[in-house]
User: What shape does this take?
Amino acid sequence: MSGCLAWARRSLFSGWLSTLTTLALLWLAWRWLPPLVDWAIASAVWRAEGPSACRGAQGACWAFIAEKHRFILFGTYPFEQHWRPAAASLLLIVLWLCSSLRRFWNGGLAAAWVAGLALIGALMWGGVAGLPYVENERWGGLTLTLLLATFGIAFALPLSIVLALGRRSTLPVLRLACTGYIELVRGVPLISVLFMASVMLPLFLPAGLTIDKLLRAQLALVLFAAAYLAEVVRGGLQAIPRGQHEAADALGFAYWRKMGLVILPQALRLSIPPLVNTFIGLFKDTSLVLIIGLFDFLSTVKVSLQDPAWSGFGLEAYLFASLVYFAFCHAMSSYSRRLEHESARAVVSGAAAPYNRGS
Amino acid sequence: MKLVIRCAAVLAALSAGHASAQATAEAVAKKGFVQCGVNVGLAGFSQPDSQGVWKGIDVDLCRAVAAAVLGDASKVRYTPLTAQQRFTALQSGEVDILSRNTTWTLSRDTSLGLNFAGVNYYDGQGFMVPAKRKVKSAKQLNGATVCVQPGTTTELNLADYFRTHKMKFKPVVIEKLEEVLNAYFTGRCDVYTTDVSGLVAVRASRAPKPAEHVILPEVISKEPLGPAVRHGDDRWFDIVKWSLYAMIEAEELGLSSKNIEQQAGSANPAVQRFVGATGDLGKMLGLDNRWAVHIIKQVGNYAESFDANLKPLGFERGINKLWTQGGLMYAPPIR
Assistant: This one.
């Protein structure tokens, strides 16, 4: 008990400013929490046959989410086939979780990704094993957001490393091309890149040749994110001391071995926080695909609000959307924190080892 | 952004001939579905329901075309389009029909390289006021505070109307729909103006008590909404046009999805021609002779589509009644 009191005195009431802040926050909580809990839980309508039950209620109308959740999660995917995008999304999340654990970091993981993506493709498109074919215009909701983000990150990162290396290359043409690309893409907003990819690009293609709309949006996201990620990676590359390059040269490493074995592992580790920062940004940027008529997660939330029978429950809908976005973004950022701790420990123990050996 | 859109539209118009070199009707028959550009979400016109199925009168038009061309109304793929991309999507060949509550104007019909195949909803800008103000006509609105959203022709029409009637008004211009409605319902403005279809939908779904608001009889602009196709493909233009007219004509002939099969044997020569029992009207369009039967059986006539999609929202037929009932819905003779 005394420990608890001591903690409170130390952290909450250490000076007049902190005491004042604590009291203000306590007052706010006392003022706002009970009505909020009442609205969100006690008086909320959880299940209802129709919107009329919500109209008279004082609390939140979670029945709206219950009614619309399948459209919000899976968009216009055929209703009776919803288990397929559900399974695909779960598979994607499981793949991400496995990839985050160090003990799975081996050749098997790459094979698992290839197999997993093939399975996801088979599930989503169908046309095999008796599953009816579903064109990818009908994919939507959270599944689409996850797919766009996954492929966006998976392809943008390697591309960005190439761009960053190119920008620091001693070959002038390569350097100019990479710098030009990065500066050009960073100079335009994502929305206009998406718009170009969706509207302008088909005009320049020969008649009869069409590139799938989803693929165009995905390409636009990859190309856009790669430019930002390249600058992050370049930051990491520049932080590596000259001595590391010279040491690698002295060992007789050629360019790719030097980069792959010495420079990039250190540079990427340094770049983890800003990389994850950009990943989180990309995850949320996928919501801009509404402008080209793709129903990502946020768009399905917005479209379900258009239903006149259920309109006016925007607060509940957006709260739900923000909770889902928060869950994914928070998972990414806390994982990046863990990764930093782990690699910091690795650096400390790795650096300490030679000295320990002598004692 | 605006510039990009404008450039895209001009480029689209220039490339219009090239995109339509391939006849749309054949292409549709070959691929087995109609690619239809619809609104991302507008209640009553085109909107996915809780199960993700597209519903609305604009959606029904696409289904009618699919029924006429392919004999199956379900063979439609939908491309949700925002206002900015709708015309270029049609021009680049991404969609076969643009059925997205689009106002038919001269400039769109010509310089954008579109052909409007008809009108499936006559809309127009109107005014909504709280009933307790006892306003009966828009001419009594002198000095009123008017809530309006910026950017579209709505704002200009409003200014024009008050100027021609030598009245003063105070505009409250708010970009976001939620906020402009909030301003109106909390009494910050006396009047809210937008298209009548929008007013009806707002009154039905957003007003705390719908009965406390009235929509004034004056309609101050013409907004004929209809499906559009690309320039330069006359056969496809004909098919879309007559699919719409078939729905209107069926209502006039008293044919509906419920009775079309029984009526097929009717002695009425107009019905005989309509169902393809006599004459070769379907063949003239390059379609199955029972094209109109497919449309009416699977989609319904215009009244059925209206009643299923717009009536529940509180829309009245108004000027969208048949010409025989004093409205504007008029199909040229199907003969």
